[in-house]
């Protein structure tokens, strides 16, 4: 009986408070007040729970340090060691042994990396300098191998015989092609451009050699440059670097694109 009377009193007080709120603030402000009270209670509970979580973590850390000593930060130490080792990277800029030749070559390498590597590497892959360092080291080894092999070439014989013959032959083909174009202009029935005439004369003079497709087709030109690049890489790169297919394909594409432009 007493319990039922207590419930009646509580219900009466609740009805009285609700009536006062409705008559004083109206239905909308009453709902807003209830919502604010609910959100305040929820926020207080969350803050109290987060504070308890932080305190429990701190207590757990203190207990672990008391039992096992300070917690080791091995991963951070490894990262710091790697960063320090990368900061100490040193580049040997000697290529041919002559500073007059090495300085322009280093400038060419710097421009090559700036125009063809840094753009896509820094923006799309990483800011790590280790890959660029290894890439430049490999390029320098290739240039050193090229310089050493070029010392074995008989440059005097090449420049005074074969090179001169090729230039002379090219000029002969051009003059004949130009003459053929002039003759076609006189003839009203046919017109001939210089490129077509040049490769026609080249085919007639060289017989089995014609470079028309390589010179006039961009795709064939890139394929030809890729083949030449791979042959040079085979001759110049160390065996371990050459047999690394992704590395070799990257170099082949970079060199062919650089020469094509």
From TrEMBL:
Presence of keyword Amino-acid biosynthesis: no
UniProt GO cellular component terms: early endosome
Superkingdom of origin: Eukaryota
GO MF term list: phosphatidylinositol binding
InterPro entries associated with the record: Phox_assoc
Secretion signal span: none
Transmembrane domains' residue ranges: 12-29, 35-54
A Pfam family per the record: PXA
Record-annotated PXA domain positions: 98-261
Coiled-coil stretches noted in the UniProt entry, renumbered to this chain: none
Keywords: Membrane, Transmembrane, Transmembrane helix
PANTHER family (UniProt xref): SORTING NEXIN, SORTING NEXIN-13
Name of the featured protein: Sorting nexin 13
Organism listed in the record: Desmophyllum pertusum
Gene (name only): SNX13_5
